[in-house]
Amino acid sequence: CVGCVWVVVYTDGSVSPLSAGYAFYIPELHVSLSNNLPSSSSSFTAECYAIIDALTLIFNFAPNKYLIASDSMSCLQALISNPLHSQLSPLVLRIKSLIFNLNTLNYTIHFLWIPGHTGLHGNEFVDYLAKSTSNFILPSLTPLPHSDFFPSFKRYIFNIWCSYWNNLPTNFASRYRNITPNIPNNIWFSKLDLHRSHITRFNRLRIGHSLLPSHSFKLGLNDSPFCTLHLDECICDLSHILFDCHALIIERLDLVNSLRSLNCPFNLHSILNTNCIFTIKCIIKFILDAGFII
Questions:
Q1: Residue 85 forms beta bridges with which residues?
Q2: 0.90 cut: is pTM over it?
Q3: pLDDT (tens digit, 9 = 90+) per residue, 157-197?
């Protein structure tokens, strides 16, 4: 555009399961660069390296106004965050250092977020360059932040845990195996907006280590494992309270109707595997209202 003095620098990073790379493109100067990264690189790291290499190259040009155009919102937000209030990637600190040094030499560096894959030529071209690095033959020796290895560590530890769990004797933790035969990727309450007291109580019900009479008797906290709501000698565990205790017939009908409205089958496996907040609260309330401690 007439009178426009900004030199636009497009940057982009690309990550796939088997490769990673980054690139930058300066249309006005007919300059572009692409490079590959180790496959364990995160997209955030790839975006940062694209900006780092672009800023490093700008030192070789005359002082001017340079506009770094990136479609990585997370990277741009990290650049404006307070380093004293957050744990910044060392790559972000490196970018900040480069910007400071360029500013002292009368370079003006600004950043602009642009939406990706919207047909903007410069952004589409740099995206193509970043993805083309998957064809590079030589492996990259570029150092990565330690945080990029966390997913690999997590997968490795998870696989070891699953192997250990699957090779345990079938009678080991048989109650919990009936509920969760395989190790889940996330803990059951990870996406539930529940108060800690609800999580604690329901978790005790899931693993069978609650303060209901049957288990508290095993712990020496109760004189009897039998139900205190009637004179019949019935072991008072979760199954008895939910399904069998004849002193709770009326309350149980209300519970069944509530669970039916939530499409939750009235059986122990479905109840203890539910991810419905209201179901969890209903079960806990039913037990507490019956006079038991969980």
A1: none
A2: no
A3: 999 999 999 898 988 888 888 888 888 888 899 989 999 99
